[in-house]
Amino acid sequence: MAMKYLSVFILTFLIVLSTSCDETFNTLDPPTDPLINREIAESQDYNLTTPLYGMQVVIDNRVDSGKQSILDLLDNRATQFLDCQFAEGSQLGFEDVMLDDGITIPPLSDLRVYVVPNRFECEAVGLSVCAGIYFFGNDIIVLSEGGFLGCGEFSVWRHELGHRYGMLADHSNQSDFQSCIGQDSCEFGDILSIEIEGRN
Q1: Contacts within 8 Å (CB) and 24+ apart, 14-21
Q2: Is a pLDDT exceeding 80 seen at residue 118?
Q3: Span 109-130, mean pLDDT?
Q4: Which of 31, 36, 61, 67 has the fewest CB atoms within 10 Å around its CB?
Q5: d(CA 186, CA 61)
Q6: Buried b (16+ CB within 10 A) or exposed e, 125-137
Q7: Cβ count near 146 (within 10 Å)
Q8: 27-31, 38-42, 70-74, 86-90: range with lowest mean pLDDT
Q9: Where do the domains of the chain lie, and which CATH numbers do they carry?
Q10: pLDDT band (50, 70, 90) for residue 68
């Protein structure tokens, strides 16, 4: 009898595996909010600041996490990213950073972060839905709390910081950042829909 149930379970499991990943993610992913473009991100009132780096933040009132925990998380993960990516470490968050291509990135206190509850429609190359987006010319990151199936909250934060600090829009140099932008608790395929807008 147990063998019969095991056979049914294995057959069901194989059918689920054969289902398209896109269909599975579309069915189970968090909801998608309306379009957030450059103008919408620019028009927000960035009235909060993170305690360490002084990043300017606005948090949509539908976001579940507490304000202070979000501000602390943004600082903590920025520190982790900088310590991992640069020999000079987290001190670079307070300084101008000259990239290899000659572009100077200002201190993190110049960065604005718009925190929203869900993935959102976006105007990114090849994509219509984002969990995070970096607007290069405006130095703004829009960041979704909900993110993707199987990922932790704010899972794309370090990925978007990678774009601020030189990862190209087409991800052609992503291998230079991979160990430092890894997603928190993500399953395979989760970041296929992450995209940015800007520098190519």
Answers
A1: 21/189
A2: yes
A3: 89
A4: 61
A5: 26
A6: eebebbbbbbbbe
A7: 22
A8: 27-31
A9: 31-181 (3.40.30)
A10: very high
The three-state DSSP-derived secondary structure of the chain is CHHHHHHHHHHHHHHHHHCCHHHHHHHHCCCEECCCCHHHHHCCCCCEECCCCCCEEEECCCCCCCHHHHHHHHHHHHHHHHHHHCCCHHHHHHCCEECCCCCEECCHHHCEEEEECCEEEEEECCEEEECEEEEHHHCEEEEECCCCCCCCCCCCHHHHHHHHCCCCCCCCCHHHCHHHHCCCCCCCCCCCCCCCECCC
Half-sphere exposure of 101 (CA within 13 A, CB side): 10
Tokens of 169: 């829009």
Question: What's the token pair of residue 137?
Answer: 């010319």
The residue written with tokens 């990862």 in the block is 167
In one-letter notation, the amino acid at residue 107 is P
Specify the pLDDT at position 72: 95
In our burial notation (b when 16+ CB lie closer than 10 A, e otherwise), range 86-105 reads eeeebebbeeebeeeeeeeb
Residue 13, pLDDT > 50, answer no
Percent of the chain surpassing pLDDT 90 = 50
Q: Which residue has the tokens 């028009």?
A: 43
The pTM (predicted TM-score) of the whole model is 0.77
